[in-house]
Amino acid sequence: MRILSLTTDHYRVPLPKRQRIPLAGVSTSPPSGATTIDVVVVTLTTEAGAALGFTTLAGPGAAGVRALIETEVAPLVVGESAHDTERLLSKAEFHFRDLGFAGPVSRAYSAVDVALWNAKSSAAGVPLATYLGAARAASPFFTSEIVGTGWDAGDATKAAKAALKVGAMGVRLEIGTANVEADADRARELHDAVGEDAWIGLAAGGRYDLNTALALAHFFQDQGIDWFEDPINPADATGYARLADKLEIPLAVGSTFDRREDFTRVSRDGLARILRPDIGKVGGVTALLKIAAVAEAHGLAVCPVRTPEVTAHLGAALPAVTLIDRVSWCDDLFTGGPTIASGKLAPPTTPGLGIALNAAAAKYKA
Fold first, then answer.
1. Is 347 helix (H, G, I), strand (E, B) or coil?
2. Strands, sheet with 141-143, edge to edge from the N-terminal-most edge strand
3. The Cα angle at residue 250 between residues 317 and 215, in degrees rounded to 5
4. Is 219 exposed, middle or buried (0-12, 13-18, 19+ CB in 10 A)?
């Protein structure tokens, strides 16, 4: 199944609105300052037809990523077989060896790799989940709609309750401001509002120092918080070793990683119980499958960062993927995609990813 051509498009979709009244001393924007999500869409044409892939960015860089795809990645894959995902990933890593296969490079390649897997499973006439060997029809999920540190407890509670109403097991809340007491209060108020049965994950984006993270983690443990994500700088292996040794609350790490080696290190050294690869940052489905294999070998869980249009398929197929991180950011951009049934997120039953560009997507073109 030879690749005949590769083209790109760029869309800009609004992110969910935050509260109108800011918390004292707390920024009302995500750390990136983003109010939109940029989506770079790849259309890969093969002898069997066209298949799309995409990558998302909550901040600057979409134009650069698109240029990398068109000028560097496309020449690497056009004329090759879409079935050769392993070899093409190795070819791309070798091509970018001097620059490094990370940052915008891995982000650019991820969109192409997603398209490759979409093309392979579409040509086989089965959903990607089935192509990968689906073991279950659907996966439990939580919502990450609450983006940035500027949500007050009331708005966070409304968003959480709305998610629970449609079947989510819980919600992930971003913290990590200079006002540590306000962070703790928001977490406590959210927990009190949604109850013991709701799952709550807290993500600090690596913005705390070790002592603050330790103190907060003990507090969150008492509150029944279900995980603490990236509490300190993810590069601080010594700090994570201390956290892992002293805490019972599960640590989740990896949402900022863009190299597979970082996940291998964390897995080998026992620094976290949950790995959080971002399919867009690590290089696509092929790279994420390698990370999941390492996690499974070390008895760790994997919860990919957002992109449910792809990760719902992985949740159905990979034993290590125990939870799906759902957002609705691309709901107006694509038709199809995963559906919620009986409190779980099920991938489409149509071939490939089961998504297509919405007819109204043109209004989001950047």
1. coil
2. 301-302, 274-275, 251-253, 227-229, 199-203, 170-174, 141-143, 324-326
3. 155
4. middle
Q: Do residues 166 and 341 touch, judged by C-beta distance below 8 A?
A: no
C-alpha–C-alpha distance, residues 205 and 194, integer Å = 23
| Residue 303 DSSP SS3 | coil
d(CA 194, CA 207): 26
Going along the chain from its start, the domains and CATH numbers come out as: 3-126 (3.30.390.10), 130-358 (3.20.20.120)
What CA dihedral angle connects 180, 181, 182 and 188, to 10 degrees?
110
Under a CB-based contact definition with an 8 Å cutoff, are residues 6 and 80 in contact? no
What's the pLDDT band for 193 if we cut at 50, 70, 90? Answer: confident
Structure tokens at 356: 């297509």
Tell if the pTM clears 0.90, that is, is over it.
yes
How far is it, in rounded angstroms, from Cα 84 to Cα 177? Answer: 44
Q: Are 93 and 50 in contact (CB under 8 A)?
A: no
pLDDT tens profile 12-38:
998 766 533 233 333 333 444 568 899
Q: How many CB atoms lie within 10 A of CB 15?
A: 17
- Structure token pair of residue 70: 């068109």
pLDDT for 313-355, tens place per residue? 999 999 999 999 999 889 999 999 999 988 899 999 999 999 9
CA angle 120, 132, 262 (to 5 degrees): 100
Check residue 350 and give left, alpha or beta (phi > 0: left; psi -120 to 50: alpha). Answer: beta
Please state, in angstroms and rounded to a whole number, the distance separating the CA atoms of residues 133 and 151.
Answer: 39
Nearest to 203 by CA among 178, 181, 232: 232
